[in-house]
Design goal:
Strand content of chain A: under 5%
Number of helices of chain B: 16
Shape of chain B: globular
Structural class of chain A: mainly alpha
Low-confidence stretches of chain A: none
Shape of chain A: globular
Oligomer: heterodimer
Order of helices and strands of chain B: HHHHHHHHHHHHHHHH
Strand order of the largest sheet of chain A: 1-2
Distance between the termini of chain B: 30 Å
Helix content of chain B: over 70%
Number of strands of chain A: 2
Distance between the termini of chain A: 68 Å
Largest sheet of chain B: none
Number of strands of chain B: 0
Mean pLDDT of chain A: 89
Helix content of chain A: 55-70%
Chain lengths: ~300, ~375
């Protein structure tokens, strides 16, 4: 019990939370773009897992940054099916999303088994070292908690700033919002609704793939089927909690990561409590957040509905 | 009521002329066959790219799905749970709700069935078997109760809340099978063998075709009755057009809660079937992917009685064929996942009328959090 009063327990939990949140930050920011544009990507789980596998298979023979990029491209490739089927052929977004999730899980499972020999060498990458920010990481407590992370985490935090700027301060960001709220009005103003939705969906595919790649290269190191373990769906909850704001999505991802880390770390404190009960903490928090945020969050008006141009 | 309905787009759904119905059926049949062929061709290309012979692979799959009594038994014992979950999910889908929590409800049902069967260990089978089935169904129902209440009263999205309950179920069964339910001698997490008086016997010896499979037909018949009943019609109406249904005095909350409870009960029944029939023990992976694919089966079958049955048989055959192909040819069984995903994607485009009709209802009720921006 006394461990709970020690600063190191909490700094380790905050640090672990940020590390666990990193893949979610990429994925939920990408998905926020798509949903702000009115596209519900239930295939996010599929983008993440295909990004995870692709990043490993490229990073293993070459280098981690190249693998990371490849993860994003693989997610984008899967998202292009979402573009084709839902945005261009007007198929129901929910159905296509589930289809892409299964396709991602099936394809990665197939490739993994087809390329892995029993008893042979597993493809794997060594996990990245922490990059300490000079001076800042020497601050007691805060330095341990916040300023010692891998470049995947630093990049995700940079992405939050860039994405926040793009979403609210650029023409593209405003167009995204316009086509998600009222596609008819946006089209009347001369915005190409399908093009903006296509771009937003591809962004979410790319960032979803990066999320999977960050999970793989940043904290797991080797592939196993179902690696992403529903993180794609957790990202959807994060977005609801954030009420479709970019900054909020990053905070929500951290909240989930924090409670996940807390569950792990409490296991050393309350040794008599079943570990499964502690591991349920983040999901329980997610359920509470989902319930509470249903009272304040407002989803984009056009979300989930296909736009059929009237020409 | 007739003039109210005529205003909406319900009339072309409910009272379409028989001739149009017939044409729609042929279109949907030909698009269905076409989608299956496309999926198989793409699957073949994937096989070619990975250096496998598609003909060898597909013949191994067909052989593993239909080639022997054992193969047929595998197909049926895989198709039956998919059909049952599919029918339950279809009730919810028709009311405009998408539940992917069947996975967790199957797990809860298996636990419920096992506990009930252990309680009735010394009772005659005629008591123990129905009691365990009921126990499974009730546990499945209990597992969806909170998501159902949250959806009805707080507009909490049912896809995400049922998904969280699947996580809870996974953690619960891991705990139970590692601690209180684990036999002292077991190394891996598992339960005691299922009580003998509650086991569902085999229909054909030397296969895994057990009597529980017939539950699928019973549930199918119940589904047909449901769809034709007045209450089933009012739930369909709510799924098509919630505001119209409510103006006719149908309680939205009741539709939401009851249809989700029905889907939970069927999934729980599947948990019982798997524990008492197929595996005769409870394992952590007892739900495998039944919950998720049950939803896909409901989508593919357009939430109709015949459609769900055909889709479940197709998926059952693909899955048992895929596993057989993996063990005989060494080609990963994940190929069946890919083909099943391609089937769903192929069916999702607008030329498949049965899905269009269904998803219109789903979108009428769709909510991620309740309210859209005003």
């Amino acid at each position: 019990m006394s461990q709970l009063l020690e600063a190191t327990f909490w700094s380790a939990t905050v640090a672990g939370g940020l590390r666990l949140a990193t893949p979610l930050i990429y994925a939920s920011i990408g998905e926020t773009f798509a949903q702000r544009a009115g596209v519900l990507n239930l295939g996010l789980e599929g983008y993440m897992i295909i990004g995870a596998l692709s990043s490993l298979y490229v990073a293993d023979p070459t280098s981690a940054p190249l693998g990371f990029l490849m993860g994003g491209l693989a997610g984008m490739a899967l998202a292009s099916l979402m573009v084709l089927l839902s945005i261009r052929l007007f198929a129901n977004q929910v159905v296509v999303g589930f289809g892409l999730t299964i396709l991602g899980i099936g394809t990665t499972g197939y490739i993994f088994h087809e390329t892995t020999d029993v008893g042979g060498r597993d493809r794997q990458v060594s996990l990245p070292s922490e990059i300490d920010i000079p001076l800042l990481s020497d601050i007691p407590w805060l330095g341990d908690a916040v300023f010692g992370h891998s470049w995947y985490t630093w990049l995700s935090l940079g992405l939050v700033i860039v994405a926040g700027f793009v979403a609210s301060r650029t023409i593209f960001g405003l167009q995204v919002k316009a086509v998600g709220e009222d596609p008819d009005a946006a089209a009347a103003k001369g915005v190409d609704v399908l093009r903006i939705r296509t771009q937003a969906t591809l962004i979410s595919g790319f960032l979803g793939g990066l999320g999977g790649a960050a999970l793989m290269l940043g904290s797991v190191g080797r592939f196993q089927p179902y690696l992403t373990a529903n993180r794609g769906f957790i990202a959807l909850i994060v977005i609801i909690m954030a009420s479709w704001s970019i900054w909020g999505a990053a905070v929500g991802a951290f909240v989930f990561g924090f409670f996940e880390a807390l569950g792990f770390n409490l296991n050393n404190v309350f040794v008599d409590v079943p570990i499964e009960g502690l591991n349920a903490i983040p999901f329980f928090v997610a359920l509470v957040i989902l319930t509470v945020s249903a009272r304040w969050a407002r989803m984009p008006r056009g979300l989930g509905e296909n736009y059929v141009p009237t020409v | 009521m007739a003039d109210v309905v005529a205003d909406g787009d319900l009339d072309d759904v409910r009272s379409a002329p028989p001739a149009g119905e017939e044409r729609r059926l042929t279109t949907s049949l030909s698009t269905s066959v076409f989608a299956v062929l496309i999926a198989l061709v793409i699957g073949g290309l994937i096989l070619l790219m990975s250096g496998e012979n598609p003909l060898t692979a597909y013949s191994a799959m067909v052989d593993g799905a239909f080639g022997s009594n054992f193969a047929l038994g595998e197909t049926l014992s895989r198709a039956a749970p998919l059909a049952i979950v599919g029918y339950g999910t279809a009730v919810a889908l028709r009311a405009g709700l998408i539940t992917i929590g069947a996975q967790g409800q199957v797990v809860a049902g298996a636990i419920g069935a096992l506990l009930t069967a252990q309680f009735f260990e010394n009772a005659p089978s005629a008591v123990a078997i129905p009691a365990a089935a009921l126990g499974g169904a009730l546990f499945g129902m209990a597992w969806v109760l909170i998501p159902a209440l949250l959806r009805a009263h707080f507009n909490v999205n049912e896809i995400l809340s049922t998904l969280l309950f699947t996580e809870f179920a996974a953690l619960l069964i891991e705990y139970l099978l590692n601690n209180p339910l684990k036999p002292p001698t077991a190394i891996t997490p598992q339960s005691e063998p299922y009580p003998k008086n509650g086991i569902l016997g085999l229909v054909v010896d030397g296969t895994r075709f057990h009597f529980g499979v017939f539950a699928a037909f019973a549930i199918g018949l119940a589904f047909v009755w449901w769809v034709r009943s007045d209450r089933g019609f009012s739930y369909d109406l709510y799924g098509e057009n919630p505001s119209l249904a409510q103006s006719l005095g149908i309680s939205g909350n009741r539709v939401i809660i009851n249809s989700l409870l029905i889907s939970g009960a069927t999934a729980g029944l599947v948990g019982w079937m798997q524990a008492a029939g197929l595996l005769q023990r409870v394992y952590v992976q007892i739900a495998s992917d039944i919950g998720f694919f049950g939803l896909v089966v409901a989508f593919l079958g357009g939430a109709t009685a015949g459609g769900v049955l055909v889709a479940a048989l197709l998926f059952g055959a693909l899955q048992s064929g895929g596993l057989a192909m993996q063990s005989s040819e060494g080609i990963p069984a994940s190929l069946s996942d890919i083909i099943q995903a391609l089937l769903l994607l192929g069916f999702s485009i607008r030329y498949a009328p049965q899905i269009i009709r269904l998803t219109r209802g789903v979108m009428a009720n769709f909510t991620l959090i309740g309210k859209r921006r005003a």
